[in-house]
Specification:
The protein is an alpha/beta fold. It has a single domain (33-165), classed as 3-Layer(aba) Sandwich (Glutaredoxin). The protein has helices at 2-10, 14-29, 68-83, 100-109, 126-130, 155-165, and strands spanning 39-41, 47-49, 57-63, 89-95, 115-118, 138-143, 148-150. A 5-stranded mixed sheet has the order 5-4-3-6-7. It has a two-stranded antiparallel sheet with strand order 1-2.
């Protein structure tokens, strides 16, 4: 919640402030909602769904290449992911970029070695509406039953959520 307050203080436009308020509402009200199945393609055009992931826990990250907060978060996520025993944990990063070339470049140059998929319709898609996503980055931690068990905003919150379930 402190991260939302910090984002709200940094928000400059009315839309950014509204997005922070929507994110705050979602954080308070959306735990334990069942996740819905969606189909996205990776940079090679292969369709990868969340049900393809056979791990106990999956971190879904909704992001954009133009998002400065995503740019700040991803090196920290990568450091955490590379240090984590990934036998029971996976990241499923959903880019909502309409410019797939820029998306492919960032995941290649950043060596983002988790599952990267793209929703090429940008903000105009069902998954964002169904998950009540109004800002990037947004993270959802789900279990093997595809139930949302946490909605961390920061790396410490992610670490704590994973620690709480182990």
């Amino acid at each position: 919640m402190q991260a939302i307050i910090r984002q709200l203080k940094l928000a400059k436009t009315k839309k950014e402030k509204a997005n922070c308020n929507n994110l705050s509402t979602f954080t308070k009200n959306s735990y334990r909602a069942n996740s819905i199945q969606y189909y996205f393609k990776n940079k090679d055009g292969k369709e990868i769904t969340m049900s393809d992931i056979e791990k106990d826990y999956t971190l879904i990250i909704f992001w954009q290449t133009t998002c400065p907060h995503c740019e700040e978060l991803f090196p920290k996520i990568k450091e955490y992911y590379d240090k984590t025993d990934n036998r029971n944990f996976e990241i499923y990063a959903v880019s909502i970029d309409t410019n797939t070339e820029k998306w492919k470049k960032i995941i290649t140059e950043g060596n983002l070695n988790w599952i990267n998929v793209n929703e090429p319709n940008g903000w105009d898609n069902k998954i964002l509406d169904n998950y009540n996503i109004y800002a990037t980055p947004t993270m959802l931690l789900i279990d093997k039953n595809r139930t949302i068990i946490a909605k961390p905003i920061t790396i410490p919150e992610l670490k704590q959520a994973i620690k709480n379930i182990q």
